[in-house]
Amino acid sequence: MYGAHRGMVPAAPNNRLNELLDHVRAEFDQENARATDFERSLTLQIQEMEQVRQKVYQLEQQQIAIKNKYEEEITRLQRELEARGGPSGSHAMAHGPPAQPPPPSIGHGPSNLFGGIMSGNAAGGAGGAGGQAGQHPSLAPPPPEPQPASGLPTHLSAAQHGAAMGPAGAAPGPGPAGPAPAQAGPGGPPQHPFGGYGQGPANGFGPQGPQPTASPGPKRGARGPPGPATPQQHPAVPLPGSPQVPRPTPPPNAQQALMGPGARPPPPPTAGGPNVGNCLAELEPDQVSDAFKTDGSDWYVVYNPQIRRSLDVKLLHTLPHASVVCCVRFSHDGRFIATGCNRAAQIFDVESGAPVAHLQDPSLPEDGDLYIRSVCFSPDGRYLATGAEDKIIRVWDISMGSIKTSFTGHEQDIYSLDFARNGRLIASGSGDRTVRLWDVDTSQQIMQLSIEDGVTTVAISPDNRLVAAGSLDKSVRVWDTASGFLAERLEGEQGHRDSVYSVAFAPNGRDLVSGSLDKTIKMWEMGGATRVGAPKGGKCVRTFEGHKDFVLSVALTPDGEWVLSGSKDRGVQFWDPRTGIAQLMLQGHKNSVISVAPSPSGKLFATGSGDMRARIWRYVDHPKPV
């Protein structure tokens, strides 16, 4: 028994196993120490890279500041030279370095309509030195790097974008017009199968696209957004490098002829500053009395010193973006504002300026450019329609942040959208030479209206009965939305001399304003031809002249008291629609003002620019004298 009991005593611990476990533990501790050292080293490297990035960013900002300083000094010297009777800047440039050869002509109707808007010259007129015969300033392809002084490169980094804010020359004037457009009969679209394009490549716009609207967003190799400004139907520095001889004020009889019959005569002049007529961009703030200017931190307003000041303008919010802001639009209740930029539309709260929604199609590739050309809210504020370069109209459910429906059918970039007040129809305009009407309820196209050239802008009348469109062929057309009947074709001797980039209905639904690359705005009175067989009696009743460069966007305030315009000269001007006289000029952006939009409620308006910012402003009426 004793022996058996001794045989059941447990064996001594296995020393070999303990040694192996200790060895594994030691190796683990060593690897853990190595990982800790590696992580610490990686953290230090990341910190060093961040310091280098910050230093590069600071150097880039310094470069931008130095460039802007030199541009302002050059502009001041050019003006001083002109004031002393010397040659103008454009004349002096003629004796400077040899001119670069003009880019090849590509005919009418590009796939991108904003070429040359940001990087072109601004001194030419119709038939001016804009390039080869038949070439339109908006049709020239971007020149290769190294970039000549006449334009901006089309693929810049984010910092280079800022450094290239200022235009580098005067914009070429439009070349000779293309083939005469075919007349559209009352029964349907024109019969020219190719219009002014000729039988070109599949895109219908010639071998190349034109230059972009503005310098691009942050990615190298990204191009800027071509395309026209968004129409609106609901009711800081002068431009360097584009010196112009100030336009003399027309004599009273000519001014009355410009205003048209029955127009209200201008108020008597005051002693607020020099008389430059409507060319308020010619005024420096120090040239006018304090009563006729407002200075902000990086913006200023000059009020026309020759008439009674009727408005005050103040900046409310600045909304930075990662790329060019192609369009701005208020919701119908005025509580929100939408913007379109590269790859996304954004919605902001108007009162606070805080972002509310970021709408981006998750099915799209993560790289590459896709600029949102136009945005518009549904009347009830539930949906936002966006039109982009990929030829697709997306209708977003804002609360869900998802796409409710998509419309396809356009064959070129979509440049403009408008939502009808009935909430059912959306109008779209495209470079494919068509205006199309879409039914939101059925998600179907219900009408296609074809013209001879690219469509840059559309607007639906307040009563939903009419849709207007502006085109590269210099015309404004108005159709009946129910029948497709062409009610008006506004052109001719009274019409624009260059492409129309923006149209907007007046609150009364009978008048229109249009903005053009000919640097003018026109107000049209329609003749009531809204049914088949009725006579077309539309006529131009007012021409607004004063911008120094292309007019990219126009709108009317909801009360019809003011016409707003945004231009490549970086300015926003308020005009009296009864006299055609400019009330003020706002310089609040460092690049072209691509889009202007008044709020349907309240005295607010918004601007979108190539400087990658949207801004919300307030205007206040001065009491009128008894």
UniProtKB/TrEMBL annotation:
<feature type="repeat" description="WD">
    <location>
        <begin position="407"/>
        <end position="448"/>
    </location>
</feature>
<keyword id="KW-0677">Repeat</keyword>
<feature type="repeat" description="WD">
    <location>
        <begin position="544"/>
        <end position="576"/>
    </location>
</feature>
<dbReference type="Pfam" id="PF08581">
    <property type="entry name" value="Tup_N"/>
</dbReference>
<keyword id="KW-0678">Repressor</keyword>
<dbReference type="Pfam" id="PF00400">
    <property type="entry name" value="WD40"/>
</dbReference>
<feature type="domain" description="Transcriptional repressor Tup1 N-terminal">
    <location>
        <begin position="16"/>
        <end position="84"/>
    </location>
</feature>
<dbReference type="InterPro" id="IPR001680">
    <property type="entry name" value="WD40_rpt"/>
</dbReference>
<feature type="repeat" description="WD">
    <location>
        <begin position="586"/>
        <end position="617"/>
    </location>
</feature>
<dbReference type="InterPro" id="IPR015943">
    <property type="entry name" value="WD40/YVTN_repeat-like_dom_sf"/>
</dbReference>
<feature type="compositionally biased region" description="Gly residues">
    <location>
        <begin position="195"/>
        <end position="207"/>
    </location>
</feature>
<protein>
    <submittedName>
        <fullName>WD40-repeat-containing domain protein</fullName>
    </submittedName>
</protein>
<feature type="repeat" description="WD">
    <location>
        <begin position="372"/>
        <end position="406"/>
    </location>
</feature>
<keyword id="KW-0805">Transcription regulation</keyword>
<dbReference type="InterPro" id="IPR020472">
    <property type="entry name" value="WD40_PAC1"/>
</dbReference>
<feature type="coiled-coil region">
    <location>
        <begin position="14"/>
        <end position="80"/>
    </location>
</feature>
<keyword id="KW-0804">Transcription</keyword>
<feature type="compositionally biased region" description="Gly residues">
    <location>
        <begin position="122"/>
        <end position="133"/>
    </location>
</feature>
<feature type="repeat" description="WD">
    <location>
        <begin position="493"/>
        <end position="526"/>
    </location>
</feature>
<feature type="region of interest" description="Disordered">
    <location>
        <begin position="82"/>
        <end position="280"/>
    </location>
</feature>
<dbReference type="InterPro" id="IPR019775">
    <property type="entry name" value="WD40_repeat_CS"/>
</dbReference>
<dbReference type="InterPro" id="IPR036322">
    <property type="entry name" value="WD40_repeat_dom_sf"/>
</dbReference>
<dbReference type="InterPro" id="IPR013890">
    <property type="entry name" value="Tscrpt_rep_Tup1_N"/>
</dbReference>
<keyword id="KW-0853">WD repeat</keyword>
<keyword id="KW-0175">Coiled coil</keyword>
<feature type="compositionally biased region" description="Low complexity">
    <location>
        <begin position="148"/>
        <end position="171"/>
    </location>
</feature>
<feature type="compositionally biased region" description="Pro residues">
    <location>
        <begin position="237"/>
        <end position="253"/>
    </location>
</feature>
<feature type="compositionally biased region" description="Low complexity">
    <location>
        <begin position="106"/>
        <end position="121"/>
    </location>
</feature>
<feature type="repeat" description="WD">
    <location>
        <begin position="455"/>
        <end position="489"/>
    </location>
</feature>
